Description:
This protein has ten helices and 14 strands. It is α/β, with parallel strands linked by helices.
Amino acid sequence: MLDERGINMVPVLKCVAGDSQIAKLFETLPFQCIAESRLNIISEHYGTLNYVMIKGATPSEISTLVSQTSMSIQTDINVIRRINLEAKKQNKRHQILLMVDWKDGREGLLTYEAVDYINEVMRMDHVFLKGLAFNFMCYRAMPPTEEDISYIEHFLNSVEQETGFIFTTISGGNSSMLTLAMYHDLGPINELRIGEALFRGYETAHNQRLPFLYDDAIELVGHIIEIKPRLNLSTHQPYMQALVDFGNLDTVVTEITPVDSKVKIVGSTSDLLLIDLDETHGYQIGDVMTFKLGYAALAHSMHAPHLSKRYLNDTGIDLMLENLNSTKENKILNRY
Ligand SMILES: *Cc1c(COP(=O)(O)O)cnc(C)c1O
């Protein structure tokens, strides 16, 4: 969909903790680069994957940032000056996108700083400005709107006029931009950085399911280790309780949902989940119980080194991908 609208998509892998099997899949897909927010994860894959760093760097990270990535999102002029010096030392080019804080309130230049920043970065000899980045719904729950798109367009026009710099990339946001992208023209935005939607199948502005994407690509599976009757202290009713062998250390329990809608989570401790089996009678010790994951649960579990991961290959999806790759190739051939 984004391709048809001339929007470049950058997959963001931070919620799968740089999982190398998943990262390797992206090598086989026609993306120019993938994005990560942790430099140590980028280092693990250095040499195999082309990464963009999407979080500003601390001074101690600059040397690794310059040697192991060719592009990053930056927000602080002192850090950018140091990146320029370091890139000169390493005889490298480093491209940056300047993040502008539009209304999310997390990171980025204040809009009135943009012109000064751009004027200075334009004069740098080893840092190259590729364009601007925007971000929505990371901190404040304020979805991007059509008005944002037209105000962004005005903003970009006046900055381009004042600096004489023409932006190559306008990286307009994350998964929260997808609903807008489906129904409206995104104007000057020609890139989106997509993480959550890719792995959970939801856009994040209104939490809507996205067509053609899976909401169960990554699931959490536990095993039942005990089933006994217990008393619910608020209702004074007995219920049949199963203990599942993971807990708060392994995921964010408030963000998981049992796939079996007849059972419900009644509580959790650091390493156990308490389940009310209700009217179900089929469960036995050793049985698996599967859960769908919200974003925090997904990210937390993927970062938990002691959870074992099992990868299932769906040949039907492989076929779909082959098709996607070949239609893309045809399109590229037709274009040039
Ligand atoms: C996490 C992140 C993204 C991806 O966000 P999703 O909501 O997962 O699509 C994009 N840009 C930046 C700067 C991020 O930190």
